[in-house]
Amino acid sequence: MKRTRFAFALILTLCVLGCPGPVAAQDAGTIEINLGYAKTWTDWAGREPLGGGPAVGIAYWRAASPDLSWGLEGAFQDLGDLDYSFVDPYTLTPGREKLEANVLRVNPAFRVRIGRPNGPNFLAQVGAGLYHVAWKAHLELGFITDFDDSDNEFGFNAGAGVSLPLGETKRLNVLGIYHVVGGDNAFAEDYNHAEGRVALGIGL
Q1: pTM surpassing 0.90?
Q2: In whole angstroms, what is the distance from residue 133 CA to residue 158 CA?
Q3: CB atoms within 10 A of CB 9
Q4: Runs of H (alpha helix) within the chain
Q5: Neighbours of 111 (CB within 10 A)
Q6: Tens digit of pLDDT per residue, the chain (204 long)?
Q7: How far is the C-alpha of 195 from the C-alpha of 119, rounded, in Å?
Q8: CA-closest candidate to residue 39, choices 193, 157, 184
Q9: Dihedral of CA 115/118/123/128: which sign?
Q10: How far apart are CA 98 and CA 178, in angstroms?
């Protein structure tokens, strides 16, 4: 049911953003491909944060004005894992547990550009949308138990960075983004995480 609702919301978002807006017909927009690193500082299982991992994404941006753009972002973010050993306080049996989590995200966003159109720019952006958080747990305590589940949550993000021209139709964007995601599970109180990314924007 959770995945069905997530898929329906994704399709609805794509349909809404796909409708033509008051943008000049000759502006076909920009495709942006990004690669980065995602890291949470929330303690999992009351111990420490997950180790962090790679983040990949793609976005489509269109200009609403010379300095304001709207777009749709989709990304996969690996939050890493946490592997630790412990002793059961009741049976004194040594045990081991491994936790890992990742995020599949889609959200509309707005971006403001400050600077000359053809030169280096300062960027700031905000977005809000759907975060599909999936996690796994592997427990060894005289026996082996594997558990996995997922959660769909609404979250928002904000960030800033710089944009450097690479030619007439390409730009290199370096951004830091912080994601605020509600919800919790048996191991974590929230899904908040930060992301650093480098993106290549290609004008269409």
Answers
A1: no
A2: 19
A3: 16
A4: 2-18
A5: 23
A6: 454 454 444 444 444 444 444 433 346 899 999 999 999 999 999 899 999 999 999 999 999 998 999 999 999 999 999 998 888 888 888 889 999 999 999 999 999 999 887 889 999 999 999 999 999 999 998 888 998 999 999 999 999 999 999 988 899 999 999 999 988 888 999 999 999 999 999 998
A7: 25
A8: 193
A9: positive
A10: 25
Q: What's the number of CA atoms in the CB half-sphere (13 Å) around residue 54? A: 4
DSSP 44-87: BTTTB----EEEEEEEEEEESSSSEEEEEEEEEEEEEEEEEEEE
Cβ–Cβ under 8 Å, residues 162 and 126: no
The first and second tokens of residue 203, run together, are 């004008």
- The DSSP letter of residue 21 is -
Q: Which domains does the chain have, with CATH numbers?
A: 31-80+103-132+155-203 (2.40.160.20)
**Paired tokens of 182:** 């509600």
